């Protein structure tokens, strides 16, 4: 069985967010145990499994697994799956492929310039009171705290500035005890001349991901958050300031958010078990 490792939200190898991708030729998923074991073996923030559908709901069924749990929504592994389908000449540019997922039907559109645009549900934001224990774990005092959901189930914290986001060193072992999928920290770009509008980082210790390099799904909450902060703008660029780093172009369309980026295949091999 073929497996690829694809770096998503980047145009060069060894940057962005790597995802494992397994596109099955059978009309059903393998067992939950097997997919979980493969994801643990691959040991990336997510491994995607897809199989073709013939019932008219979508072109493919798609699921995503961290090394520890199955998640309801994942951006970079969806982009990576679209890239694998394009490499296999299933998805041609321009062209769109649809995926049936736990978060509804999602689409990925390939463009002639080599980029992909994902159509995801916008995450609603609910202000919540800061948790003193969480603030101590993070070592930062946020300007605001929001819960995102239902597909993401993260806490989004706005920090004072970009430097605070980049310099954050949270206690990951304590974060692993929180029930939310992850914690997103964000701030406005420090320079008006930057090629991005806001920065973020994502810590998903509770889901088995210490720090995710580039989190597409988090941008379904970052898009409406920063739109409200930046005068109602609907077209923005986010930079996730992890060690690998990556750009996500966001377009807010009401209850849908478009996420755009590129991808590069770095490993193409066979699963032997």
CATH superfamily of the largest domain: Diaminopimelate Epimerase, Chain A, domain 1
Q: Would you identify the CATH architecture of the largest domain?
A: Roll
Supply the number of structural domains: 2
The whole-number mean of residue pLDDT values reads 96
Biggest sheet layout: 18 strands, mixed
Helix content: 10-25%
- Quote the distance from N terminus to C terminus: 9 Å
Shape: globular
Give me the number of helical elements. 6
Derived from helix and strand composition plus strand pairing, the structural class reads alpha+beta
The count of strands amounts to 18
Give your account of this protein's structure:
InterPro entries: Phenazine_PhzF-like. There is one protein chain. The protein is an alpha+beta fold and 273 residues long. Helix content is 19%, strand content 40%. It has helices spanning 32-42, 76-87, 132-138, 162-167, 172-175, 219-229, and strands at 2-8, 17-23, 46-52, 60-65, 70-71, 95-101, 104-110, 116-121, 125-127, 144-148, 154-158, 182-188, 198-204, 209-212, 235-240, 246-253, 256-261, 263-270. It has an 18-stranded mixed β-sheet that branches. β15 and β16 (246-253) form a beta hairpin. The longest helix is centred in the N-terminal third of the chain and has 12 residues, at 76-87. The mean pLDDT is 96.
């Amino acid at each position: 069985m073929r497996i690829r490792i694809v770096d998503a939200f980047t145009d060069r190898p060894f940057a962005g967010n790597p995802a494992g991708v397994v596109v099955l030729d059978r009309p059903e998923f393998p067992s939950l145990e097997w997919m979980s074991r493969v994801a643990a073996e691959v040991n990336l923030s997510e491994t995607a499994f897809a199989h073709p559908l013939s019932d008219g709901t979508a072109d493919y069924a798609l699921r995503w697994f961290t090394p520890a749990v199955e998640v309801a929504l994942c951006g970079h592994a969806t982009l990576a799956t679209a890239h694998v389908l394009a490499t296999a000449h299933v998805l041609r540019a321009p062209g769109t492929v649809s995926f049936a997922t736990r978060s509804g039907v999602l689409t990925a559109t390939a463009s002639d310039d080599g980029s992909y645009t994902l159509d995801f549900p916008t995450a609603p934001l609910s202000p919540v009171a800061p948790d003193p224990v969480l603030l101590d774990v993070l070592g930062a005092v946020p300007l605001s705290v929001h819960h995102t959901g239902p597909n993401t189930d993260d806490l989004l914290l706005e920090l004072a500035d970009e430097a605070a986001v980049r310099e954050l060193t949270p206690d990951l072992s304590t974060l692993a005890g929180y029930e939310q999928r992850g914690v997103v920290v964000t701030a406005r770009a420090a320079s008006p001349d930057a090629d991005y509008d806001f920065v973020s980082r994502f810590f998903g210790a509770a889901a088995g991901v210490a720090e995710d390099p580039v989190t597409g799904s988090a941008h379904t909450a970052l898009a409406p958050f920063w739109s409200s902060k930046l005068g109602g703008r609907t077209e923005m660029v986010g930079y996730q300031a992890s060690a690998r780093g990556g750009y996500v172009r966001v377009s807010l369309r009401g209850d849908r958010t478009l996420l755009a980026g590129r991808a590069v295949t770095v490993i193409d091999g066979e699963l032997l078990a």
